[in-house]
Amino acid sequence: MEALVIDPFDSNRWMYGTGATIQGGRDLLKWDTTHNVTLQSMADGIEETAILGLISPPTGPRLLSAVGDLCGTQSPHHTPPTVS
Questions:
Q1: Are 37 and 27 contacting, i.e. CB atoms less than 8 angstroms apart?
Q2: Nearest to residue 54, comparing CAs of 29, 74, 36?
Q3: What is the percentage of the chain residues whose pLDDT exceeds 70?
Q4: 47-64, pLDDT tens digit by residue?
């Protein structure tokens, strides 16, 4: 766990980050009575990766991507850009 936060305007809303995603819930006050909260992904619309490098080799796959947190990918089916 990298961070744990509680919304200062809504004590029921809490989140924690792992470096790979953001988890949390909207029922933190239940902890006082039931000692149980709902855990769900709070990362909708958030991308936690970074493009570290792109190369287009003369042979083999058309594009190689170095992506932070996800290792990398090859993309053999991209069409080349058109020249205008």
A1: yes
A2: 74
A3: 79
A4: 667 788 888 888 888 888
